[in-house]
């Protein structure tokens, strides 16, 4: 097992070995790390719900009624009434006929992709910048994976043309919002192409739920494509502030996944505290869109001011704000100096992003105040100038 120590050392020499910090406080706009309070621009807590009192109260109440663990897989004895209620509510929220709940967003991709296209004659069309969970789910299928250049509809059309006569099932899978760059999939064009070539469509809306669409209903709602996307895949660990994964679509699709998808058949159901917290998060999202609007106001302000300072924020169209630095070592130094100045923003480098595009990814939240944003901009500016990233 000596290869592990060698590879860890090689990561350190290449500047790819990361520091994993431990929070000593609940998730929030400010967090305590190593005895100090720092502004948090790292988490996916888009709407500030991770530590929301209504979620905590719902969990406390439901634990007294339902307990903690499900005790079994969904298909044996692990389906409790709250699981069914959350699935019904999620389907309604997404504007779909039905939804199936699984343990995480990663598991949702593992549940959908190998189940719909399992065979050697099947084809998967996958965006070149799709998330690792999509890539791993594709690997679990025996289908041939055809990568098309990122959001390049001409390249996608060429590859669909080249495989028009292929036998077997065909599925296109794309992220809705690409997590490292913050750009949005060209879903209307994708849907049209897939309809023309008789290809199933699936979108992983992990960073779109709670962010895009009316009141955060996601990318399908954002583009008004209800009923035209075969599968919506999502996570409840970001804007919802909890844990869990979901796949939504037709009643037939959900029934098929319920009886075929391995994460549903061979892994215990989501815990009851998670289910309770997600129900409370849905209540908040369905009441009004104030948190979603605040998220976008904060994101637009931060991105605009950082651009004015001269930072390269890439092609983001969402509150995700990448500051592209280049080399991994430079990005890690930038992150370390930000932390010393009181701002927590982790460096992201290869293999999460391509070599030469290491960055700081600033993740804004509806929980951030105007003063928080002012502090963030001033800190980025001071450290950026000191390191020669901006003038």
TrEMBL record:
<keyword id="KW-0663">Pyridoxal phosphate</keyword>
<dbReference type="InterPro" id="IPR015424">
    <property type="entry name" value="PyrdxlP-dep_Trfase"/>
</dbReference>
<keyword id="KW-0012">Acyltransferase</keyword>
<comment type="similarity">
    <text>Belongs to the class-II pyridoxal-phosphate-dependent aminotransferase family.</text>
</comment>
<protein>
    <submittedName>
        <fullName>Glycine C-acetyltransferase</fullName>
        <ecNumber>2.3.1.29</ecNumber>
    </submittedName>
</protein>
<dbReference type="InterPro" id="IPR015421">
    <property type="entry name" value="PyrdxlP-dep_Trfase_major"/>
</dbReference>
<dbReference type="GO" id="GO:0030170">
    <property type="term" value="F:pyridoxal phosphate binding"/>
</dbReference>
<dbReference type="InterPro" id="IPR004839">
    <property type="entry name" value="Aminotransferase_I/II_large"/>
</dbReference>
<dbReference type="InterPro" id="IPR050087">
    <property type="entry name" value="AON_synthase_class-II"/>
</dbReference>
<dbReference type="GO" id="GO:0008890">
    <property type="term" value="F:glycine C-acetyltransferase activity"/>
</dbReference>
<dbReference type="Pfam" id="PF00155">
    <property type="entry name" value="Aminotran_1_2"/>
</dbReference>
<keyword id="KW-0808">Transferase</keyword>
<dbReference type="InterPro" id="IPR015422">
    <property type="entry name" value="PyrdxlP-dep_Trfase_small"/>
</dbReference>
<dbReference type="InterPro" id="IPR001917">
    <property type="entry name" value="Aminotrans_II_pyridoxalP_BS"/>
</dbReference>
<feature type="domain" description="Aminotransferase class I/classII large">
    <location>
        <begin position="37"/>
        <end position="379"/>
    </location>
</feature>
